[in-house]
Batch of 2 targets.
Target 1
Amino acid sequence: MTTDFDVVIIGGGPTGLAAAVYTGRSLLKTLVLEKGVPGGQIVFSAAIDNYPGFPDGISGYDFTDAFLRHAKRFGAEIRTGLGAEKITPNEDGSFTVGLSDSKSVTAKAVILATGRHPRKLDVPGYDEYFGGGVSVCGTCDGAFFKNQPMAVVGGGNSAVEEGFFLTRYASQIKSIHRRDYFTAQKILIEEYTHSANVTPVWNSVVEEIYGKANGAQKEVTGVRVRDLKTDKVAEFDVNAVFVFIGWLPNSDLVKGMPGVKLDEENRIIGNELMETGVPGLYAAGDVCVRPIYQLANVVADGVQAAVSVEKYLDSLKNK
Amino acid sequence: MSDFVTEVSDSVWDAEVLQSDQPVLVDFWAPWCGPCRMLAPTVEQVAEQYQGKAKVFKMNVDDNLESPAKYGIRGIPTLILFHKGAEVERRVGIPPNANIELAQMIERQL
């Protein structure tokens, strides 16, 4: 079996980069494909405060930069802005990975570390005003709305953490959530709900985001919200709507592939060795079914996937 | 410092961007925007690929207030392609497959 690489890692977030550190140290010829930016979702984090070993916290950018340098130090080739479009298992057990530039590469093993992407709010105005006040990144866009009213939508870890970050900029935050409590880590909830400029809007969903447009320039001016218990509708004047309502797995590459199992939410069902049902194809991190989605455990997933690949490739040699 | 992407400022905006004969891609960014900084190497690759055919600039939205306001930048990264003095296309956020996506935007103007 002659291939371009020993292993292609699809996704350059914490899982993929952790895997690359380990495959590199195992002297496996490694390619990491990242269709967005290295670090994936963690780059959007202003401060990572729960990764053990960083008592003062670390920014998503600094964390990713260190991780990247670590992976490169052991020889991984990392291509950014270039994704995988197709994975084809070959007859000899190798894989051909089709790339978004219409080229392809071959590898003896593939690790899927494609992660997740933020769920969109399926209401009028979301797409239209995206970048004009609608955002999924507080650290990127909060500063554009200094002393202005904002809405934060969602109630999990991301919503509460990002919401708290936004309190430094916002004049007022309407924190809109479909339940009447937040489901984030306790310390995050404390920080957020004790901020003077945060008003929870419980049991409520956004129905529309509206604003004004001038060609490509869009500006949010408000949201319409429905209370699910009373059915009452309210309108809030806000200049920004930050949306954190959950995640969807990036599992399209293996959807329908014989041997790969997905759950009802399209997350990959694997095992503790990160194996899928296809020999040589591994899946790790956020794209998989996990009880929690935290940085520490998806990093560990990447490490396990790399070790499994190494053992798999050894077993091929001994055949 | 980048070899192929230079910083542009409000004071030279008209001369460098609007009066350019070549298509001009401007990457609006800020130092506090992690995703913007992680995207920079990809923008750099595209700039190198189109060296001599298109210009690629970055604009720091903290240091420059006029142009970002004029073009209604309310989220970064925002990438805008200008040609013949006018905006042609814009992308807000991290474009998937940015290497290909940004190249194609430029190709459409060549």
Target 2
Amino acid sequence: MNIIEAQKLVRYYSGVRGVSKLDLTVPQGSVMGLLGTNGSGKTTAIKLILGQLVPNEGAVTLWGEDPLDLKPERRSRIAYVADEVELPGWMKLQEGMTLYASYYPQWDAAEADALIKRFDLRMDRPFGTLSKGQKRRFFLMLAVAQQPELLILDEPAGGLDAVVRRSFLDLLMELRNKREVTMLISSHILSDVERVIDRVAFVNEGRTTLEDDLDLIKERVKRICVSKDKDASLMLERFSIESQHDIAGVTQFNVTDFSPDKMDGIDGTVEHLNLEEIFLAYNGDEALEAGQQL
Amino acid sequence: MLYLCTVGGRTIYLKIDHNAGIPVSAQIAEQITYQVVSGTLAPGAKIPSVRGLASDLSLNPTTVARVYQQLESDGIIYTQRGRGTFIAPHRTAYTSAEQQRRLAPLIRNLVVEAGKLGLDFDTLNRLINEEITAITDDTSAHQNDAPGAADTNQGDEA
């Protein structure tokens, strides 16, 4: 069963397309990485999925229903940790948690306590005195204690140091394996999410440019280097090429439909690509042109 | 990342590099195949369910299902409905000619790669022999094990 299904979503912002033709399928129990450069439309996509924005065109469903028609019991099983969330600066963490918990009948107080210890949260402190990393840990604690079936995290690792990011990712893996929480994680730190996700959607200029299981993508997307014209033309005949570069007499092809038998008679070397390299093969040129950072 | 899991009463290590370009399912299939060829995993040994292994390795069950599919189509494991999944008996399904046909491209790549690096072929021969010795040493060590014996022989020879 698919928890999230989005088809050809379009959403304009004051006449400009924030999202155009965005497709997304998140099966139950999977962890989907929604990956793109800054400004590619990831946050807009999440707001459309949650029903916080209504699409101008296309359709999105959660558990097969329109997000706006979801029953309250269902809705209370969605946890969303936004990129930038704030509580009033004077509010103590304990008060913030009590307020949040009151919305969720299934609130797990024991889980909350365990996470408060694990994340080293000081509940008597006012929200305004927390660092960015502490705020994120606080909100993740709330999201997990809510016992979600669907957890949506927008840039969960942004602004966190390596140690905290690791403990964060470990927690996400626990949630996936022990409780089968379905997750949608937007991020631009690809090496981090690569450990957790099993499905990938690349978003570029509001469009889904690639969506599939991470393992299948790694099987099919390869870089092949050839140095002879004969081999280069065979490459063009046999493979579908996402991008190519000529460097000192060698042509690098980033292919999206690799299989070993297609290399018969081609003298070339095959390089495996990790998630970041695959992302660059798909989005590298545009990202560089836009002067954006990965 | 190094993971421990129990297969056929034996504890084995699986090394998974999530940040590599090789699919995780291919990494696991390759390591299990090695353990079978080296005799660490004996024919008939029961292997964990897809869900069980997925939980041991912190992976999504669909990834592990892909590993099992691959191993099954390679004849390394087989599934008996209602009983579970097991390491397959040693196979002689391919004729010697077919075995050689399948290996030829791999051997050619190996020789070309060695030539490219400027390695002399005597050294290449020696390296291949060392690899064969390593895997057959494993095999003979395991043949002396009592069936179902705990994994106590690691490092015995050292």
